[in-house]
Design brief:
Strand content: 15-25%
Radius of gyration: 17 Å
CATH class: Alpha Beta
Order of helices and strands: EHEHEHEHHEHHEHHEHEH
Number of helices: 11
Bound molecules: 2-phosphoglycolic acid
Oligomer: single chain
Distance between the termini: 7 Å
Shape: globular
CATH superfamily: Aldolase class I
Structural class: alpha/beta
Number of strands: 8
Helix content: 25-40%
Number of domains: 1
């Protein structure tokens, strides 16, 4: 299992960042752990010998040079960043479109950073139009990548209606299983044969210690992108142990 902690802007002191980073080291015996922290803390944690992988919450589409305020994929790569979250709904809400998201994915891949492409519907309608939305978000990126790049991209299914709530309001395991099957079917349009099975799919949206095990079991997900439950040491530790 791959568990990516999305600290968002919850963590805003070096003390808290250090505490979370240190405690995550103990969790690497249970799962692959990547911490997506605010950019400055990546610099702080870089260079430390540990199995905890560094992740970023975003990357610029810029290739560098005269571009004030941008943090490029090459900058992240220079710090040893392994993963970057791209197209999170909280960034799409600020106007980030599929074209920019594709560029960011390509920049990350060019620097050997694994992009975690976030997709997911705002709400579920009875006519299941949300499936078309998810398909379109996937197509916008996957149709433009090479076979090798497609296999190197991680998909995070994050339904917006389930983000930042509680376990009780999160997705049901059976609905997650259905969506994972659907995503793999769509990926089958871009990858031959069994290759679509190899793309890692994460789930994100109110994964907590109480629902993590049920969501992991049998749904077909390869891991989780965890927001609010990742910024409290005992909660995150319980969650990781629950899915291992
Ligand atoms: P949440 O966030 O776990 O707080 O719902 C997940 C995410 O937005 O990545």
């Amino acid at each position: 299992m791959l568990i990516v902690a999305n600290w968002k802007a919850y963590v805003d002191t070096t003390e808290k960042a250090k505490k979370l980073f240190t405690s995550a080291k103990r969790l690497t015996q249970y799962a692959d752990i990547a911490l997506a922290m605010p950019h400055p803390y990546i610099g702080m944690c870089a260079g430390t010998k540990s199995a905890v992988m560094l992740a970023a919450q975003d990357v610029s589409a810029s290739t560098g040079g005269a571009d004030t305020g941008e943090v490029t994929a090459s900058t992240l790569a220079s710090l040893g960043v392994s993963y970057v979250i791209i197209g999170h709904s909280e960034r799409r809400a600020k106007g980030e479109d599929d074209a920019v998201i594709l560029e960011k994915v390509q920049r990350a891949l060019a620097h050997n950073i694994t992009p975690i492409l976030c997709i997911g519907e705002q709400e579920r309608d009875p006519d299941a139009k949300y499936l078309n939305h998810v398909r379109a978000q996937l197509a916008a990126v996957f149709s433009k990548l090479s076979q090798k790049e497609r296999l190197a991209t991680v998909v995070a299914y994050e339904p917006i209606w389930a983000i930042g709530k509680t376990a009780a309001e999160s997705i049901q395991p059976v609905d997650l299983e259905e969506m994972v099957l659907y995503i793999r079917k769509v990926l089958g349009d871009y990858l031959p044969g069994k290759s679509a099975q190899k793309v890692r799919i994460l789930y994100g949206g109110s994964t907590e210690p109480t629902n993590a095990r049920a969501l992991a079991g049998g749904s077909g997900v390869d891991g989780f992108l965890v927001g609010h439950a990742s910024v409290d040491v005992p909660t995150f530790s319980a969650l990781v142990k629950a899915v291992s």
